[in-house]
Amino acid sequence: MTDLTASALAILDRLVGFDTVSRNSNLVLIDYVRAYLTDHDIAHVVLPSPDGTKANIFATIGPPDRPGIVLSGHTDVVPVDGQTWTHDPFTLTRVGGRVYGRGTTDMKGYVACMLAVAPLLQRAGLRAPVHLAISYDEEVGCFGVHGIVAHMQAIGLRPAAALIGEPSLLGIVNGHKGSTGLLTRVGGLSGHSSRPDRGVNAIFHAADILAWLRERGAALAGAPDSVGVFEPPCSTISAGVIQGGTARNAIPGDCRIEWDIRATRPGIVETVLADLHAFVEARVLPAMRERHAGAFVVTETVFDVGPLLPQPGCAAETLAKSLTGANSVGTVAYASEAGVFQAAGIPSVICGPGDIAQAHTPDEWIEIAQLTACLALLQRLAIN
Ligand SMILES: [Zn+2]
Fold this sequence. Notes:
Bound molecules: zinc ion
Helix content: 25-40%
Distance between the termini: 25 Å
Strand content: 15-25%
């Protein structure tokens, strides 16, 4: 094992030890990273979340006044609740050529590689800077990274490219759909089920909205998108949770639908929401308000991660090809922070160690060889 791999594993051991499931604070992990960067004289800034319970950390190696390269990773991990682990999820455990622990693949392994390489880059006298963008709350809707993008814009940074280290087995991914989480709340009027004429049944009216969503999803499926690289090749709509009512013999006064849109390109979400609004105004609310003036239907966006649109030949793709030696690019089914960086005008691709098949699973693991290969790739930034 190389010294660099050993130091990445030592860092990963620390990172895995912090229980940064998204519902928890990540500040202890951020403190550790801050101390590490300080020890290596690497300029950095901590960017707290609005409520101060979490933070991003953003570091710059090399001359900040030139367009540089962003390496992006997130600190939060998905829960282990309900999963059967044979290893302690928050203790890095090595067995043969693998290390086990929550986040080893998604994606503390990459963050460990970024940090292990940072001192080498710091000593290399870079001509263009490398920025480390380490975020919170990626798993629950890519909330944290917006603070990093805002910070870069505020200080006038215009990076040339971003490499997002989500697990891709170090292959180059230049496209994914967007992911927009939505909540529609239907407010009616409760009462005894024997007198439906006196209430407004929120479940019945929500059913009309569900039927509309289903039809709209079918219409999207019938019109495959020109982007043409995704599977399935169209934007999709799915309802995932429906809740409402309290008892069989009571008219439900409320109902909520949690649903999502996976858009192939910008503009789809806005169009669907505008059309839904028009449908609700014309076909749902009048009937509800006939009997109860306070009836309402409200749809809110819980999170919104834009698509990563393939930009063949963009700076990020060219860079990733030169670092990895790979020629082919692909797309993935999951959304990532890459869509947020691209929407901010920064060419972006995904290229990270480990296999997405291990992400979010019990006994999550990563091949040490993947970390070693990732480190070799990132080291090439020193001579870029
Ligand atoms: Zn991830």
